[in-house]
Structure formats: structure tokens, C-alpha cells
Amino acid sequence: QQQPSMRSVLVTGANRGIDLGLTRHLISDPSVAIVIATARNVESATELNNLKSPKLHIVKLEVVNENSIAYAVAKVSKIVGDKGLDVLINNAGISYYTPLHGDLPKSKMMEIFEVNSVSPMLIANKFYPLLKMASSKKGSAQIEMISSCLGSIRNSKSVPKDMHIAAYGMSKVCTSSL
């Protein structure tokens, strides 16, 4: 069996979608020793809980709650120990159907921005010491901030004209493809 090159990977929002798929892939990857999958509500994350692997650890994380982030950091610290965290994949996100026709409430916009834009930075900041620990042992650690083609400035011409995902796109903007 191949020796793990990435000792530990944490995936935010792993209860569904892309992150659940990433988690499935990571637990089957022999180069990964520890997979930490987070979910806002662990009990109702049926598909995630159905994944069976000795390398999988499921941790509760409400990405907009600083107490929940601190709790998750403490749990992950116990899981990875003094080896630290090698990779943080920040992709948890939300979207609402929000057409621009006069009924888009500020509260929905702020919720989308808080989850998709602010929380990834909070999480990266709070997990930084564990990433730094891994970096000092192995020479590197990574933070992956996942964006979306719906937030791409280059692809903005292909966004539907009714802008039903405008708030989501704005919260996931990426300019690296320009």
C-alpha cells in the first residue's frame, strides 16, 4: 500500500454536493491518511454518515458560528495531533433563488455573503495554527478556497438574464481566470 503523502484533509460542508463527492474520493485515496468531513447538522447528514472508512472523521461545524468553529478546531486538533492539518478545503456554501425584480431582501444577501465569503476566511484564520504545524513538519500545507464558475467575471456573460443567482455569484467571485 502507498504511503500517505497527505496525512490529513479537512472538507467543509461535506454533507452534500461537491464536498460529499470530494469526501468519497479522499477516503478512497491511499495517499490520504485522515479525512475530516464537516457538516452543520451531523445527525441529518445521512449520506455522509453512511460512508464507512477508518480514516473518516465527521465533525460538526456551523461555518458562520465562531463558537462552532472553535469547537471544530479543538476536535480536529485532537484528531491530527502534533502532525497538524495538511489541507483545508473551504467549499461550504449556500444559495437561494433570488431574482432581481424588487423582492431581494438584504437579509438573504447578507446570509449568502456571510456563509460564502466571510466564513471561509474565518475558518482559514482559526485553522491556521494547525496548518502551520503541518507546514513546519512537512514543508507545506494548503488552503483551498473553492469558487464557482457562477462567480467568474470572465463567464458573467453566460449567467441567465434574470440573475436568479446574482447573490450567490457575487459571493463566489473569482478573478484568477482573467
TrEMBL record:
User: Which residue spans traverse the membrane?
Assistant: none
* One MF term in the entry's GO annotations: oxidoreductase activity
Kindly state one GO CC term assigned in the UniProt record.
cytoplasm
Top-rank taxon: Eukaryota
The residues the entry assigns to the signal sequence are none
List the Pfam families. adh_short
* SUPFAM superfamilies per UniProt: NAD(P)-binding Rossmann-fold domains
Q: Which InterPro entries match?
A: Fungal_SecMetab_SDRs, NAD(P)-bd_dom_sf, SDR_fam
Q: Name the Gene3D superfamilies for this protein.
A: NAD(P)-binding Rossmann-like Domain
Query: What is the recorded name of this protein?
Result: Dehydrogenase
- In which organism is this protein found? Pristionchus entomophagus
